[in-house]
Amino acid sequence: MSWCKNVKGVLLDITGVLFESGASEPIKGSIEAIKRLKDSKIPVRFCTNETTKTRQKLLQKLHSIGFSMKEDDVFPPIPACCQILKSRGLRPHLVVNPDALSDFCEINQENPNCVVLGDATDNFSYQNLNKAFQLLMSLETPVLFALGGGKYYKEGSDLILDVGPFAKALEYACDVEAEIVGKPSKSFFGAVLQDLGQPAESVVMIGDDIVNDVGGAQSCGMRGVQVRTGKYRPSDENHPTVKADGYVDNLAHAIDLILQS
Amino acid sequence: MSWCKNVKGVLLDITGVLFESGASEPIKGSIEAIKRLKDSKIPVRFCTNETTKTRQKLLQKLHSIGFSMKEDDVFPPIPACCQILKSRGLRPHLVVNPDALSDFCEINQENPNCVVLGDATDNFSYQNLNKAFQLLMSLETPVLFALGGGKYYKEGSDLILDVGPFAKALEYACDVEAEIVGKPSKSFFGAVLQDLGQPAESVVMIGDDIVNDVGGAQSCGMRGVQVRTGKYRPSDENHPTVKADGYVDNLAHAIDLILQS
């Protein structure tokens, strides 16, 4: 069990780790686990691909079910994307969830010259995908951002398509490669690590997504641990390309092992 | 101009070659071109990825605008797919255009054990894609058929997403490779060639899709010629992976060159 030794920082996925998607209560033991981690002075950051709501609303939800993290410790893709858009002078055509729109309110969206794809859920309509496709085809240099690379997540008992497959559809249609903002992008993890102030090799990422959480963290030099909550499926433990440094029943189990080491 | 010499058989794409998608009249000169080809005893077959209507309705449309081909000479993907489903005992969950549904009426669709994706247009909803995704994820051996591999087609002045991008989305989400029934599948072209009764090297495929028509035909040993009608775009002549044996203004131009050689 070497993954839990000498841990000097922890990154936590949110949905599927702190609470189950669609549920209104925390996963058992997760609130106390984060408290124990903080009491032991190990810094924590929350690293999420959540784009179905604003960062404010996500934080409100977390606080309403008993968590107490600060806004600055929560890293979703949209603020990172807005920074990129501003710095490169890009004006997005947005295919995102209506509940996330206000996080883009300071971004000029007139005469768009790129497409930003979030977890748009019902907004992933044939009509909206065609609009994004037609814009990309009209640009001399098409630019497509995907807010995360997730394949699917779990809501209630159902697996639900995430933004990744829709990004692949547009990549194929337009012969373009999406720039991922969010997990598993190295620059996204890098920004969170910099804020954490610990070197990658001393940090453990804990998540329910074998590819984007575990594999993504490992690609950045961190340890990656998968929880058996959220969208975890037993077949993940035999994943063809990613082998987690550890598998744990849930967040509380992971934190116990880290604090005992 | 060596592509037009010694042609002993011709395969023709339909939409974008005989008529423009959404239009109610033939592309100028195409009816007469096919007549000239028949008069010169060069056999012709029609090789289409059209899945937005039944073969009967497609034929009715062709006849109504002045063409006179026989039903047996038209090869769309759905009849080929039904043969495969029957021979392998597969029961499809269909994500197809409502207007094409009746071509599947003899296929058992209870308790589905595979997914068939056609050009479903508005039926490519988030909800329908999730249903197909969930079925594939529930199968021990997920089987996904895509009726053609097209990226897009042209309707009026708009480029519109075809079935290919949606197949890519499900392939990525489920870690599965779609079996393509239709162009550019080798077995699909092979069946048409067999019916034509000429060896691939004596046959020219004429289409508006640089990858699926031209590239697909070339992969089977045929010559592939692109018309500058339908979804043709000037950038197709500098396509990164496919170089057509010839580019022609339209079908009539291609047939003139073949008959003059």
TrEMBL record, chains A, B:
Family listed: Belongs to the HAD-like hydrolase superfamily.
SUPFAM superfamilies in alphabetical order: HAD-like (SSF56784)
Keyword Transmembrane helix attached:
no
Q: What is the lineage of its organism?
A: Eukaryota, Metazoa, Spiralia, Lophotrochozoa, Mollusca
The protein's name in its UniProt record: Phospholysine phosphohistidine inorganic pyrophosphate phosphatase
Cross-referenced CDD domains: HAD_PPase
Principal EC category: hydrolase
A molecular function GO annotation: metal ion binding
Task: Report the catalytic activity.
Answer: diphosphate + H2O = 2 phosphate + H(+)
Q: Which GO terms describe its cellular component?
A: cytosol; nucleus
Q: Name one Pfam family in it.
A: Hydrolase_6
- Tell me where it resides: Cytoplasm; Nucleus
Q: Which InterPro entries match?
A: HAD-like_sf (IPR036412), HAD-SF_hydro_IIA (IPR006357), HAD_sf (IPR023214), LHPP/HDHD2 (IPR006355)
- Obligatory cofactor(s): Mg(2+)
| Gene3D superfamilies, per the entry | HAD superfamily/HAD-like
Q: Which PANTHER family match?
A: 4-NITROPHENYLPHOSPHATASE-RELATED (PTHR19288), PHOSPHOLYSINE PHOSPHOHISTIDINE INORGANIC PYROPHOSPHATE PHOSPHATASE (PTHR19288:SF44)
Establish whether keyword Acetylation is in the entry.
Answer: no
